[in-house]
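Bit of a strange request maybe. I'm writing a small parser for structure token strings and I need a real example to test against, not something I typed by hand. Could someone generate the tokens for this chain?
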Amino acid sequence: MILDCCWSGLALHGAMSATGLGGLSDIGGTFVLTATSETRTALAPPGETYTAFTGELIGALEKGLPEAPPLLTMTTLYRHLYDALVAKGRPTPQQRNGNTAGAIAVARNRHRPSVPGPGPGPEDAVTSATEEASVDPPPVDSPSAEEPPDEKPSVDPPPDDAPSAEEPSVEKPSDEDSSARWPRVRLPGPRRRRTVVMASALVVAALGSLPAALNLIGGDGSDGGSSGGNGSGADTKAKSSLTVMIGVSAPLSGDLASLGRGIRDSADLAVKKANADNAVPGVTFKIRALDDKGDLASGRRNATELVADRSVVGVVGPLNGAVAQVMQKVFYDAHLTQISPSNSDPALTLGDGWQQGTFARPYNTYFRTVANDTAQAPAAARYLYVKSKRRKAFVIDDKQTYSASLVQSFKKAFGEEGGAIVGESHVDAGRRDFSTQVSQAVNAGADVVYYGGLYDAAGPLSKQLHAASSGVLLAGGDGIFSDTYATVAGDGADGDICTMGGAVPDSLPSAETFIKDYKATGYNSSYSSYGGYSYDATSALIQAFKSLHVDPSDTVPSAKRESLRAAVQNVDFDGVMGKVGFDANGDAVSQTVTVYRLSGGAWKAVQE
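Reply from user aminoacidic:
Good idea to test on real output. This should exercise your parser:
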């Protein structure tokens, strides 16, 4: 079935889904190809004869595809349409492939490579009538879009195909018998075009009759069965175990491992709780955690790997804002939802023009459960100026997205409070010797140093700063909220402050069960700063999946990735860290920020 109309992706989740007509009918395999997703309109480009989707499809059928096999199968066409339309910035086609339906051949490949010679022969002046017909190739075993193969799956969109697994090799007829085996006729151009367009129109019209078909096949369409091929009327909707993966990308090794493991283990706890509560009957959730090491290359590689795994319905992470930036488009192109429990860079949700007051959400697949820097930095500036009576600040960033964004927000907010920025420095993220920056701050008369980086560097900075001048405080964002910071910084760090979007679980009655269960499970790492937010992010994905998933089957998922994204946008529940929901930009609806002060080697919330 091929559909070209607005919101045509609805067919992937309705009557033609695995639990609809496509699953109930006595058909070995079905392939549904739609012009766009269920939440997006189709496109009719001005001045073009056809819609974007149909025009590209007709072009492929009429002109053929270079380097494609002799038979143009549904899978081959989908791959071509995906690449061509995405490259032009047009609506992204969707597909659902059941069993071996991807191997259905729609037409022969008309592409004729140019070869040196005197010119075209008589065979090149005519076309094969069979090119308009559907060819039924021998059945082969090929993974469907909803059924991941046993081996490592390919990246979506799949790589260029070869005439092997899905498409049988077709031998070209010899000159002697070509006219007998492949009779050729020239169909008038307009008629050929009408063939494709009318076929699409008939399919679209047929969609309106699907509810009636469901009633005929399965009673009221809600609990039907098929013959199973033996006339027994066996119920094909018997409950089976469906495993759904939730990806996690975070630094699981290196200096930031304590934060990353807290994110991973908290997500794991949310999955364990959902399974124990039978949150989605017949469905078992699992975590697939990948180590991004806090670096861009690993993050991009993880994103590609998670997209390729069709059992992954959403991703929690990453920890670092810069890593999130390289992952965002990879997930967006695949309609795969990611929810970060820690990123605070405003540009991730508001766009690069946010500092100029221009908000434009870059990717609608990206969400976060923590407050962004537009809330964190002003809270720190207000506390330092009003409560701590600080007037001169020296600022340092580590050139990373998170750090630079936080420092810029702090400079603006501290100035608005009446404070002065007496100097600034930009250092590498791996720096641990801050003697130069400490000297600059002390000589400039700073009474506070605001550092935008993470605890692994902030700890040594604090120790060196207090050794040089005990009266100067170090302040930062949620990246320094860690027990490791207090240990490394030492006793002289008492009085240092940091901010945290929302709160830490220990201070919230809503987190009591989470803390108890986390400790009882026996994880080796603490849930740390972002554990509660990771738990809520994972729960949001599970709740969104539950709202879409009606009946478990052996394939993942009946709720497609794009549908899940739309469902995540609308989640609304009370989580570990408070109200969980997202605004139109993907930011957490709760932008509460708490200021913490280091006292006796422990972070303690303070009243503003």
